[in-house]
Amino acid sequence: MLEDIYMVTMKKIAELCGVSRGTVDRALNGRGRVNAETAAMIKKMAEQLGYEPNPAGKALAARKNHPVIGVLLPSEGNAFFDDVIHGMDRAAAAYAIYGLTVRYYPMKGYNVDKQLHLMEQMKGKVNALIISPIDDARIAKAIDDFVDAGIFVVTVVNDIKSSKRHCYVGSDYFNGGETACALLHALLGEQAKVGIVMGSRQVLGHRERLEGFEHRMKRLPGFSIVDVVENGDDEICSYERTKNLLDDHPDISAMFLLAAGVYGACRAIMQLPEGKRPVTIAFDSVPSTVEMMRQGIVKAILYQHPVRQGRMAINLAFEYLVNGRMPDKKNYIMKNEIRLLENL
């Protein structure tokens, strides 16, 4: 039945354009030479009629090409990426009929050489790359090499603006930092001494989140940042550096946990007497952070839609690989939303 509809649609376009059905087929599917003016006329007519190729035919063509998406994420030991991958898996399952394969290349932390090594392993094996990149000139150059080789590249969760990547899917990190500062203002009033735990200054998003916090803080003369420590998104490191931070600065009244490593940081906070614990906010509703909210350590989080980020990244790669559609914009931004335990 689908094939009959497909034939009739092609036939209708051929009749209206005064050409053969074969010419329409070649013009719309790039299967042979067609005069440029004729091809343009056919494509315009197809667009006006709302023509869509037979999904079964498209699936068959896609399976012959065996499209492969390589996904490179710093997901080892970082529970946030579990939800991102869940979104990717859901999208990939919907496209199984097209023969789409998704291959994951996980890594831990932000080691540039390790990320470059994994990218080297992917060469010649993938048609599209989805990557949460380290913000380093060598990574940007490697991404540019992929693009120059005809590989479609989406940055997800974190961006690298100096590269030729086709688009970015993720949150507005600067706004996330602004929102976090405004949230602490609402919770604490006009005075706060803030300790900040971040993942890595090598990550563009983490730097932008800190910059957003500092920018919003200019409106609060009673706010000051006591210190900023990095934990590499590692729970053990996060515990140790947060403990040292709190020991060195017992006057801290607020903690902003800017990236992963929330559980480790909270374990250090829990060692303080209950009346001395700083008001703490964090990002992302991973299970361990939710548990810290239930225990009253984390007062609120900022949510950045990880499942949706993963699903959208796969969707964009699929549209390019199977339908030949480029993204209609460079940035697909998720809103930062404040979540309390009651509305998680």
UniProtKB/TrEMBL annotation:
It holds the Pfam family Peripla_BP_4. This is Transcriptional regulator, LacI family. GO terms for cellular component: cell envelope. Residues 8-62 form the HTH lacI-type domain. InterPro entries: HTH_LacI, Lambda_DNA-bd_dom_sf, Peripla_BP_I, SBP_2_dom. Belongs to the bacterial solute-binding protein 2 family. It comes from Mitsuokella multacida DSM 20544. One of its GO terms (molecular function) is carbohydrate binding. Coiled coil: none annotated.
